[in-house]
Amino acid sequence: MPRISSSALFRPIVTFESGEHWHPAVFVTNMRPHWGGLEVDSVTIDLSGSSYAVFPAAGPCGSSRHFDPQSDYFQALVGVYVVPPIGGRPVDVKLFGPLGNRDNVAWQGRCGNPNASSVTKRLQLRPLEAGGSLIAAACRTGIDVGVFVPDADADLLRPPSSLWEGQVRPFEPLDTSIFAMAWHTDGHLIVAYAISAVFQPWSQSAVAVSRVEKEQLTMIHSVRVVFSAPPFVPPPEQQTFSGVR
Fold first, then answer.
1. N or C: which end of the chain has fewer CB within 10 A?
2. What does the pLDDT average to over 115-130?
3. Tens digits of per-residue pLDDT, 148-168?
4. If you write DSSP's letter for every residue of 187-219 in order, what string do you get?
């Protein structure tokens, strides 16, 4: 599978293996405005970081199939969080839940949701022998269709209302499942994750893994994070996305 890469303007550079069903761009967002004021062990901390996201490829209307209720890729996403150390200490992987919730609320706010919310319903961690952790999580959030992002720099992320009207309601409650791999490199927390409405890789029952989920697993296993000096350079805070096509 070909590899796609985030912009060399930002650090670190993140690359994925990506097939024809995924848009050949990595969209990068500065998360500092959204990850401030986190409560950790009765202490308030302000984290910086970047989010790297890959969306499903465009459908006939020109926007990502992520927004098409008729598509197998509806609400699917693959991404990476890079979180620098704070006070010289690496950020704990257990913060993945709050970081993801803040990300969801910020994204829905840009989609026009006046009551954006995101709640972690379950978060399981499994240590890996080679280091790092596997994460399985469940989250209650909302379908991300509505007014949508007025300042997005890609038609891919501006779906016409005709794509979803009559099938789902704007910001309708949605239960998502997340599978992730997390590790630390040079003190930075790295989390490579896949989001799906039906993703259950650790289910005790026999649940068939869909083609989309197999693609997502391949992509997060393929993630490479390349650090160079300086190790962390995010996009401008006021810029919604910085993508490379």
1. C
2. 93
3. 655 555 688 888 889 999 988
4. TEEEEEEEEESS--TT-SS--PPPHHHHHHHHH
